């Protein structure tokens, strides 16, 4: 019985490693953006810090600039507190600058507690750092129409 369980666990582990190695870059970047959304939802600073580069910068729809990982994380948590609601990022396009840098355009919707929806756009600049995709810049825009 133990041998069967061991074989099942090893098979699962091997398949997991294989599937991670064969995922394409678009899937990896989509997963990164999902992790960003999850970290914001859970206010998970450890996850946020692990997916942002040290030199990240962020321009939010209010016009505030956030420079560096610490300022970005603090600002994200503050923003989530002051603008409650469920957030959703829907990727529209991923464009690669080169094999280690890409641009992600996404619709960014915040479902407010009163039922209204704030519809914005987010652009993420992502880079591959030590074989892991990370966010190095975020630009949020609130369209005027």
Structure described in brief:
By secondary structure, the chain is of the alpha+beta class. The chain has helices spanning 2-22, 25-42, 45-51, 69-82, and strands at 52-59, 65-67, 86-98, 101-111, 117-129, 132-141. The radius of gyration is 18 Å and the shape is globular.
Q: What can you see in these coordinates?
A:
- There is one protein chain.
- By secondary structure, the chain is an alpha+beta fold.
- The chain has one domain: Nuclear Transport Factor 2, Chain: A (Roll).
- Helices cover 41% and strands 40% of the residues.
- It contains 4 helices and 6 strands, in the order H-H-H-E-E-H-E-E-E-E.
- It has helices at residues 2-22, 25-42, 45-51, 69-82, and strands spanning 52-59, 65-67, 86-98, 101-111, 117-129, 132-141.
- A 6-stranded mixed beta sheet has the order 2-1-6-5-4-3.
- Helix 2 (25-42) runs antiparallel to helix 3.
- The longest helix is centred in the first third of the chain and has 21 residues, at 2-22.
- It starts with a helix and ends with a strand.
- Mean pLDDT is 86; it is low at 17-22.
